[in-house]
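Example record for the data management plan.
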Amino acid sequence: MVGSRICPLCNCARNTVFMKENARNNRDHIQLLKCADCGFVFSKTVDVDYTDFGKSASKQTKKELAEISKSQNIQRLVDEIISKTSVRQGKVLDFGCGVGLMLREFNRRGYDVLGVEESTAFRTMLAENDIPTTASLSDIKGLHNSFDIVIAKDVIEHLEYPLQVLNEVISFLKPEGYLYVRVPNRFAYPFHWAVDTKGHVNHFTPAKLKKLIAGMGLKFVSSIRVYDISSRAGRLYDFIFWKLRYFLPM
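Corresponding structural encoding:
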């Protein structure tokens, strides 16, 4: 547990309340703050312990993993990443790879893959499937400027210092490499019955994510369609907001 945070993007200590602890859809009753300077929304406190993270999920069978991959349409997601980056073969680094759905798909297509994952349970699970992993970026310092694609899928919303970590992550990209980032969209919160305010400590909009990427000196290439539609909010975003993204202030 840490004390009240300052804005993780611009380090501003001035903020207003964005969501109260007792809001109807505040699942974990942690107050959300909004930076008075840049407008970024973040959880007031960080209280997450990932020590045992992944123990239950790491026991999933190959059939169960295949069903999860299908529900998230991982194959089509990888298709689109390959199409928009034009990286037909190469090296892929997945930061915070979890059970390795993306790595498994890239590996199946012949890419040289490596996962970074703190969870021992997940790393053991992936090793059993011949997917190489490491516990932290500090273990692969010799691989700076080595990867064609770096993935941070559903990761930076969990990080207390997302900007600092992402800057370290992109140091492993080749000069002409590509970074793929996916985060939950805060614009879906009014339609969601249980917003994660504990595990998710950063709450992005597409505009704030683009601003973060631009501040790192990267060029925005393209948005990629949202495929994880297992929740009501996800379905709403995928079928309505995505089609209107060029017309709404998102």
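Summary line stored alongside the record: The CA atoms of residues 149 and 214 lie 18 Å apart.
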